Amino acid sequence: MSNLEIQITHSQAACIFYSDPLTTENQMFNEAKIAAIQDVELCYIDTPSEPYLLASKRNDFFPCKYKRYRHAELNSQSELVEETIEEVDNETKDNVVHSES
Questions:
Q1: Nearest alpha-carbon partner for 11 in 37, 24, 67
Q2: What single-letter DSSP state applies at residue 96?
Q3: pTM (2 decimals)?
Q4: Helix axes 24-35, 10-18, angle to 10 degrees
Q5: Quick check: 54 and 66 in contact, CB under 8 A?
Q6: Are 17 and 26 in contact (CB under 8 A)?
Q7: pLDDT per residue over 25-49, tens digit each?
Q8: Which of 5, 59, 75, 85 would you call most buried, defined as having the most Cβ atoms within 10 angstroms of its Cβ?
């Protein structure tokens, strides 16, 4: 039996916390929900697959007890979202019906 530690990103932990499927949309949405709550952090004690919301100051006070999740690189996801928005904007402009009064 090996001692492999599970690698879970902050956005994946956010989905686990809310018991949502691990999709890109859910990850971004759940991270935003947690970010909207002031003075809390998503962390774990021993098992990365068991996330907790914890007061930020408590996490700073007990740095050896609580562990923080790493944040994944969002550049590729952000670029994908920007490209999708741009495509929707272009499609909307093409489908606009102009009427003269």
A1: 24
A2: P
A3: 0.66
A4: 90
A5: yes
A6: no
A7: 999 999 999 999 999 999 999 999 9
A8: 59
CB 61 within 8 A of CB 41: no
Confidence check: pLDDT of 22 > 50: yes
Which residues have a Cβ under 8 Å from the Cβ of 43 and sit 6 or more positions away?
Answer: 51, 52, 54, 59, 66, 67, 68, 69
**Block residue for tokens 């879970």:** 8
**pLDDT of the residue at 59:** 84
Instruction: Please report, as a single letter, which amino acid is at residue 4.
Output: L
Count the alpha carbons within 13 Å of 101 in the hemisphere toward its beta carbon.
0
Q: What does the alpha-carbon distance between residue 74 and residue 79 come to, in Å, rounded to a whole number?
A: 8
Residue-wise burial string across 39-56, b where 16 or more C-beta atoms lie within 10 A, e elsewhere: ebbbbbeeebeebeebee
Contact yes or no for 41/17 (Cβ under 8 A):
no
Greatest distance between any 2 Cα atoms in the chain: 77
Please tell me the predicted confidence (pLDDT) of residue 48: 93
